[in-house]
Amino acid sequence: MYRTTIEDAVFPNCPIRNILARLCDKWSLLVIYTLDKAGKEAVRFKELQREIPDISQKMLTVTLRTLEDDGYVTRTVYPEVPPRVEYALTARAYTLLPHVNALIAWALENRDAIMEDRRKACKK
């Protein structure tokens, strides 16, 4: 999938579908949350990978590129040997964080009830 061109076939100008398609994949919000946990400091690729151990190197790379393309993450390359690359959240990402944190709080508050409903649904 070429991640920089997501457009809804039926509603190509719908901003909510377009933005949610990019942000609500398996990894994007988790990467943003992980970068936020680091505070205002930039984070190196391997540090991110350690913090999210079940993400593959390729998927982390694709996710970071997508977040950078959409203006949520900055990527800084330092001309050293070996090259050092750091990632940090942008001002746009910081405006998104209250909504992400509210979603996390909601999920924590409702997790047990949701899991119970899932168990009941499996027994049907």
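(the above was protein one; protein two follows)
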Amino acid sequence: MEIEQVLDNALRKAAALWVTPSGHEPRLVWALWRDGAVLVAVGGTEQDVPGLDDGVACTVTVRSPTTHSHLVDAPATARRADLGDDDAAALRAARLNGRAEWESVYRLEFR
């Protein structure tokens, strides 16, 4: 099964995954699967992910939203994203608390 299919299936049910930027500890993050990449909002009222920066290699770990068992570790590269209106609206709409104020958004693109 391709990584995109695994991520798509898992992230339709749960919006949390582990991100490990190179040289840093894993961090559980809220994320949005969109257009073949994972969007992660950081700063402001959003989460802090030390080491996440443009061009940084990361490992994305996905667990089953129902059994919490390990599904996949996938290598990715973080790219700072300039979101269009549709992506920004989708990111805000996906937040459970309805308040999304971020400083940066990164697209985790799979290699």
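Reviewer note on protein two: Residues 85-94 form the longest helix (10 residues).
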